Amino acid sequence: NTVMAAQMTNAHRRFLQVLMSNGITEGSEARKLHQHCCETDKVYYAHDKLDDFISTINSHLQPLFMQIRKGLSEDDGRAHYAVVNLAETEVTKMASDYTEIELELFRKTMDLIILSENGFASSTDILNTADQFKTKKMKKKEAEQVLKVFVEDKWLSEKNGEYTLHTRCIIEMEQYILSNYQDVARKCNICHSLAIQSQVCESCGIGMHLPCVRKYFRAQTEPRCPKCNGFWSCDIP
């Protein structure tokens, strides 16, 4: 048996509880929470030790098949943290919160987003699929309401009638998506996490998140692919 890295304090427990109740926590909020938990519990606090603090919690979560995972927002590249249950797949995780027909709408939406070129699916396309369900049809009004709930619960994000996967969804379902969409799901060539909204090299087919594209090409006079050195033809965001 591996020895636990460090003792789990009340500060660790409090941090974990808040993360679990939030569903997902933005990086700056997690840093504030880390400081607050340490100071409340009167334990040693260092502003640059959040990753170590989380590692301690993760060593205690390991036997429970759970883990705090860090992911980056595909919009702006900011860090987020979420508690992931490694023993459950996407379907079993969501099955306790949603009906079978609602899950079918989520799966169809996920298909459209992942199979799209830009990582977005229009509400029109999503609502059209609701008409073609195998078991029972879902009325458009009802489907719109369910999509709203998925946005509120941070499984989807919506911008001007276009839907994509929320950062929480990407963190929690990365393994599920990579194994269920093997032919199309790709990891970012720069940060190596799942890339839904990405740019793709026309020559060799690697993908990069938009924030990673921005960061990578900032220092280059001519944008060239980090893998094949071909000219990067996409517009740099």
TrEMBL record:
Main location, first listed in the record: nucleus
- RING-type domain spans which residues? 188-229
Under Enzyme Commission nomenclature, its number is 2.3.2.27
**What highest taxon heads this organism's lineage?**
Eukaryota
Which Gene3D superfamilies does this one have? 3.90.1150.220, Winged helix-like DNA-binding domain superfamily/Winged helix DNA-binding domain, Zinc/RING finger domain, C3HC4 (zinc finger)
One Pfam family name from the record? zf-RING-like
Task: Fetch the InterPro entries from UniProt.
Answer: Nse1, Nse1_RING_C4HC3-type, WH-like_DNA-bd_sf, Znf_RING, Znf_RING/FYVE/PHD
Q: Name one GO cellular component term.
A: chromosome, telomeric region
Q: Which GO terms describe its molecular function?
A: ubiquitin protein ligase activity; zinc ion binding
Catalyzed chemical reaction(s): S-ubiquitinyl-[E2 ubiquitin-conjugating enzyme]-L-cysteine + [acceptor protein]-L-lysine = [E2 ubiquitin-conjugating enzyme]-L-cysteine + N(6)-ubiquitinyl-[acceptor protein]-L-lysine
GO BP field:
double-strand break repair via homologous recombination
Tell where it localizes: Chromosome, Telomere; Nucleus
Its keywords, alphabetically, are: Chromosome, DNA damage, DNA recombination, DNA repair, Metal-binding, Nucleus, Telomere, Transferase, Ubl conjugation pathway, Zinc, Zinc-finger
Q: State the family it belongs to.
A: Belongs to the NSE1 family.
Q: What does this protein's UniProt record list under function?
A: RING-type zinc finger-containing E3 ubiquitin ligase that assembles with melanoma antigen protein (MAGE) to catalyze the direct transfer of ubiquitin from E2 ubiquitin-conjugating enzyme to a specific substrate. Involved in maintenance of genome integrity, DNA damage response and DNA repair.
Q: Subunit arrangement?
A: Component of the Smc5-Smc6 complex.
What name has this protein been given in UniProt?
Answer: Non-structural maintenance of chromosomes element 1 homolog
Q: Corresponding gene?
A: Nsmce1
